[in-house]
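Summary for the funding panel

The consortium committed to producing paired sequence-structure records for every protein in the target list. Below we show the first two records in order, beginning with the earlier of the two.
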Amino acid sequence: MGNNGNGVVAYFSPEFGIDQQLPIYSGGLGLLAASLAKSFREMNIPVVVVSVLAREGYYDQYVEEFTNDKGETDFKMGIRYKRWEREEEFLEDTGVIVPININDRLNVIKVWKLKDLFGSVPVYLLDTDVPPNDHIARLNTRNLYGGTMHSGVSWEDLERRRLAQYYILGKGGVKALRRLGIKMAKYHLNESHSYFAAQEILSGALKQGVSWTDAIHFTKSKVVFSTHTPASSGHGHQVFPLDEVAKMANINCKGPITVDHLRMLGGDSLGKFNMTAACFHLAGVANAVSKKHLEGIKKVWGFLEGAAPIINITNAVNHRHLQYEEFRNARTPKEKAEAKLKYKRMLIAKYAPAWNENVFTAGWGRRGQAYKRMKLLLHGDNYWWLSNLMKENRIQVLMGGKPHPDDRERIKDWEELYKLSKSKDFPNLVVVSGYELDMMKEWSAGVDTWLNTPRSSCEASGTSGMKGNGAINCSTPDGWMWEAEANNYFPFGLDSPIDLGTHDTHDAQELQRAVNDMMTIYYHDRDKWNQKILDSDREVETHFDSNDRALQYATALYGLSL
């Protein structure tokens, strides 16, 4: 790699979505990390990725069919975990073993390297699910984000396991890179899960005998931070009891880092430790992931004394990875339309054989979080409007999403949609379980429009509509779509949050209008529709490709001279 002898940047990420055969991703954060890893390679930027080998991944979603109390066939969402054991196919054994104390117990971390199969920069995966670790230690990296209560773990034990996994990722990752003999220039924390990498840099400086102020300055010179969560609370902002963090990291009054130091970095009045606040305090520079996100982040975190300055680097995807060549090579509306018809036929054959290729087709697929509003298309009056359109065979809708296993409300939403897809009221609704990486690409290439329904301003960026596979976005003005040219997609909904009930009702009515507008053009002015496909794809190919973002990270965040 072209590092000119100046060292390598380590990109720490809690998940990594490079390929469906590797179960170490759950959603957009992992997809972004993989896109950048491929772009760093393509742009010859000296980066290595550090993540966790979560052998049971996030979870496998499936449909469980059963007979209910009325003797009727019913359905519910099934959740299962399968152990991944394909090391020989995908991994190289580096021979590096890293000892680490967790809660005064010795754990060992085995360091794997991903084989050069995916056009990525080097990827190192940390694994404690190995001998001689005991059962508890082996659980620490078995599932992404520590697992779920669904698997029978109490909330308290789950929190400890999550914290242990982040400690392994951060501190263990830094120690692994040292043992691998890689000369490091910077440490990039992709979300606050990687906080302990910064703490390890700080601790190392303090052990050299420098003052606290000088150690902070040194750490800032080595650490950069990306945050992906817009609000002051959320999945990306990791918060744990301060005493649990101290116990996990074996911190006591003797130092070099003390409990008082932890409190200074990320403590709050409730006795909690906020990893995002600590990352802002230890990073030299931080970035938001869209222009709209930057505005929100500055309002929430800009008050922190001594925090890193925040810039914006809007998320993007690698089109060599996620866009089919037929779409990438198409130069005219006619060529785009031909590619769309090819992949639409493939989509119908695989997922909905009863569908008609001439019918307007919409897709919705992503993680099933509350703010993404999985059921907005059927909200309120939209229910019978959509039902009637389907009965008239004017629209077909393909949906999929993976709610968190502990989010009963979102699982209920998914189950309701699945049952509706089996009813006579929605003959052209297909809901599929197990929404994974391959589906993301197939669906965007096969549907005519991609529905993006987050409640503004809850989406930090999002990437699902960036693939450039001929699906015109229909979206609220949130995340990256706030930056897109309005003529290249179909916008709907409010730009700023109001009362949630009123907000969703308003946006649902606006979504109905937008879908009606799309169908009018699709059925009555196909030349205009095909031109819009071309313009939409050109915009994401030009302005939302991760090669450009890789260069931004290299220069604006890492300070590299390329």
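The next record, for a separate protein in the list, is shown here:
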Amino acid sequence: MPIAVGALAALVYLIVGIEALNQGHPHEDAYIIFKYAQNLAAGDGIVFNVGGPPAEGTTPFLWLILIASGVRLGADPAVAAAVWSAVGAGLAAALLCRAVWRATAAAPTDRWIRAVVVALPVAIVLWGPAIGSLYGFGGMLYAAMALAALVVYCEDRPERVHWLPALGLAIALFRPDGVLIGATFTVLGLLQARSHGVARRYVRVALACALVGAVYFVARFAYFGLPLPLPLYVKSRGSGLLGLENNLSWLESGQHPLLLIGAIALLAIALGSARRRERRHLLLGLLPSVILFAALARGQQSQDVYFRFQAPITMALVFATVQLAFWNVERRQAPWIRRAFVVAAAVAIVPGLRGGAEQLRARFDNHPPTYVDTFAVIFGDATNEGDRVAVTESGRIPYWSSARFEDFVGLNSPRAATELPSRAYVEEFDPDVVMFHHASLLDPERLAEAGSAPPRVLSITPDTLAGAVKAEYRELFDGGVPDYEAAVEDGIRPVVAAAAALAGFLSERSDYEIIAVDQWGRGRYEHIYGFRKSWSPRLALVQALEKTIDLDPRWTYREIVRGEHQTELRELLPERP
């Protein structure tokens, strides 16, 4: 039964994932992973720019390898991501089904409870980790791997306890913060192994896994020249509990983790003296989630799509709720009491499913689609390998283009990740195109002239750009903050520092046409473009910006991949060089 239910859940999730691509697009940061995966699959190494230096601008290493393997076999990167996420959904559903199935094995007459065995795991498509992964991220598989370690630990079987170091290694290779989960389960497993008298074998396996991890770390340092992935340098810039607010938002979110935590406490108490040993292991098995939660509070959780970084915690809480509820079902004889515990679990879980359903609907609505989804394809068609583009948005725009991109936030450039971007740095790169999100650096009202309805694509002068810089960022804009340490003390985020460097560069140049774009029609002019006036595709791309900003309907990812808009592409880019 668990295998069949897992296969059903994987199939349902895959159908939903493919449909999401038919109706919308992956997330901006998912495109970054896809770019690296394509280059790796093509034999160019882990690089963002073909022929460029190695750069690890994405944190989920194992997720990158899995997607690249799919691309190598001929799959589209986004489809490969959907397939691997479906594998994660199937694994998690099978583990949940197995827990419920075993707990209710002695009650064959409660057919409606048995129905829960199928319905609850299949509903995994509506839980937080699954929704976040529909944007191209690996949170579903990551959470399923962490759940597998939790299940192995909770079952406390001497012949399987040595699986924990291997699972811990895989989780650590998947994401850097997975090291915390993997290491904690490895330590917990050692305590189990000692109690079962199999500590020697366990230690041998753990040392072998540690050796593999050490070899990986040394190899990646030799390859990249840095001990950590670039996003960790970017997101660790700051002081205090940078991620605490996001963690608190997760606690208050539609995933309802506080409700799950309350249910776990009550259901654990309701067990009384029954299953004391199993209950202790289950609660101790939540320790890696506690440690991960504390660690996430120390870093900036940018692009935490539907709380994907908390995905292993969410999955662990759901599993603990289900396991405790059905342990209570197992030990009760009266049907109405058994069903009461099922209802109790439903009360804790269903609100999270409802929140997931709302997010799923939003996923298909695409929030709504941004003009960049379409303009990125046009931009890619207009650019060539010799073109140079300076960006802070390194997802959609670079994905469809063969030009050389320098991300001044630091997701493809070790230099940008480890030093404060400057105008001199931009001048050294000498871009043909500059594109950045101003990230609150600019006052939008100073960009547009007074009027009731300023255009969404607005041509501005270098002086207007410089005059729109907010007072609190003036020192940064003028070059008065020399390094990251000083920037941190001033509360400057890397994305703001990058925007200041690029805006400063454009404000001193008369040879660029500067365009401000109101991405969502709210008057914020989030995106600033600078096109070198001597660059041949400039006029065509400025026209394309004006046309795509109101294009309806916009092109979906699968339509673009299938080449269904070639005629429209030529109409939107009539002056292709």
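Regarding this second record: The chain has two domains: 2-365, 371-572. Residues 371-572 form one domain.
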